[in-house]
Specification:
alpha/beta; TIM Barrel; 4-stranded mixed beta sheet; binds zinc ion; 9 strands; 5-stranded parallel beta sheet
């Protein structure tokens, strides 16, 4: 399976990541990625960039090293209602957003609370992907999650870092298997993200692809197999 879009990468603007936008773009070009998402952590996370960073993204080039650039954010789900940490006036100027539950910010609640939090985030029209929803430290009801993803047109992420390097996440593989089976059943598209915090991980989807191939997950439901499909799913026109 060849993936042409990496929607989820971080730069030194998030202080726990280690490469620049240019380094990420160059790494993407080398790996044959056509569309790259720069999605630094939104301001509620302690070492995230200031709100002005997101406001000023318009100064950046739309294409770097031949890679089409998308500038967004990885929003934090801030409460069990699914509120996020950037205002609408900032969100409307971003290309797209991922929303993720980070336990450093919001303690995992009951299964019901966590599920409500993610469902609430999906109701936000600027949220196009729910990031790493497979962490067993944050138990959720996958049937509800997948059904609401279908209702709201939100993609669910298969996060390569969760499988490869995020040792602190729990039951990733088992939870992904459950989620993917439901995505297939309900026809919900998934987005594979590298969640790279260093340029060398940009466009690396090795562990995610292995799982998708192992269960013969339908290619048409993998958003990043086509640039057009991905851009359509985030509500962007294809401009070449
Ligand atoms: Zn995250
Ligand atoms: Zn991330």
């Amino acid at each position: 399976m060849r993936l042409l879009v990496d929607p989820h990468t971080h730069t030194i603007a998030s202080a726990h990541a280690y490469s620049t936008i240019l380094e990420n773009a160059q790494a993407a070009a080398k790996r044959g990625i056509k569309v790259l998402g720069i999605t630094d952590h939104a301001p509620a996370l302690e070492d995230a960039p200031h709100v002005l960073y997101f406001k000023n993204l318009h100064v950046l080039d739309r294409e770097l090293y031949g890679v089409k650039m998308l500038y967004g954010a990885e929003l934090n789900i801030c409460d069990y209602e699914g509120r996020v940490d950037l205002d609408e006036q900032i969100l409307e100027n971003l290309d797209f957003c991922i929303a993720s539950f980070h336990t450093v910010l919001l303690k995992a609640g009951s299964k019901n609370q966590n599920t409500r939090a993610m469902l609430g985030a999906m109701d936000n029209p600027y949220v196009k992907i729910i990031g790493h929803p497979e962490d067993g430290n944050i138990p959720v009801d996958y049937v509800e999650l997948v059904k609401h993803a279908r209702e709201t047109g939100t993609m669910l992420e298969v996060n390569n870092s969760s499988l490869k390097t995020a040792y602190y996440r729990l039951n990733v593989r088992e939870n992904l298997m459950e989620m993917l089976q439901l995505c297939e059943k309900y026809g919900v598209p998934i987005a594979v993200g590298s969640d790279a915090h260093f340029a060398n991980a940009v466009g690396n989807f090795d562990c995610a692809i292995k799982i998708l191939e192992e269960i013969s997950f339908p290619k048409e439901l993998v958003a990043n197999t086509s640039v057009e499909k991905f851009l359509k799913l985030i509500g962007r026109e294809v401009k070449v």
